[in-house]
Amino acid sequence: MASHLDLEEQEQLDQIKHFWKTYGNLISWLLIVVFGSIAAMNGWQWYQRTQSSKASGLYEEVERAVRGGDLARAEQGFADVKDKYGSTVFAQQAGLMVAQAAADKGKPDAAKAALQWVADKSSDEGLQAVARLRLAGLLVETKAYDEALKQLGAEVPEEFKALVADRRGDIYNLQGKKAEAKAEYSKAYQGLAEGAEYRRLLEVKLTALGVDPKSLAPAKEATSGTAKS
């Protein structure tokens, strides 16, 4: 009996040996890949958290500088966070903040540069849209209408489309292109939710161009009225 069991055990051992001889390397490599991927993912998440934490510190420095009216220090902080942690949202928000501070200080070129960086580099479509809207506004102030329209030609999230149409309408109106302005203002008006406060301003613009807002199709259910440029 014992001999019979020994033979069965030996056969099983032989089968296991054969299996590992045939598939052992493959299984080992698969395990390495799986556990390596898990380790890499954990490492990447740790790296992202670390980067975000450091970027947050620099963002706070920029914020303090802006609140204190020290534009030079704010610009230096933005340069640091942009160079070291440019892929983080903190860097992109710092860009918007510095751009506003520069514009307020009468430095439109610095403001444009910061906004262009956010528009080009941000991983957040909403921040990109805000940067493009503000940049278009600065370009309009210098009568760079074609450049402003180019900025507004990029694809934006749905909630920003009415604001983009409104700004395009402003540009066309300034260029004396009344038909195009009416079309864009109408698009913006119809893209905003019916109770949106911003619709009142659009009603004034449309009326000034001889368009009765009440004659336009009913507004869609939308959230565009809450977006800020």
Whole-angstrom Rg = 29 Å
Give the percentage of residues in beta strands: under 5%
Quaternary structure classification: single chain
**How much is the average pLDDT?**
80
Number of strands: 0
**SS field, number of helical segments:** 9
Name the overall outline: flat
Biggest sheet details: none
* Low-confidence runs: 31-44, 222-226
Helix proportion: over 70%
Which series of helices and strands comes N to C? HHHHHHHHH
Compute the separation of the termini in Å. 87 Å
Which class best fits the helix and strand makeup? mainly alpha
Features:
229 residues; mainly alpha; 9 helices; flat
What does this molecule look like?
By secondary structure, the protein is mainly alpha-helical. 76% of the residues lie in helices and 0% in strands. It contains nine helices and no strands. It is flat, with a radius of gyration of 29 Å. It starts with a helix and ends in a 21-residue tail after the last helix. The relative contact order is 0.06. About 8% of the residues have low confidence.
Layout: helices, strands, pairs:
Layout (H helix, E strand, L loop, with lengths): L1 H66 L3 H15 L3 H16 L3 H14 L3 H17 L3 H7 L9 H14 L3 H14 L6 H11 L21
Compact description:
The protein is mainly alpha-helical.
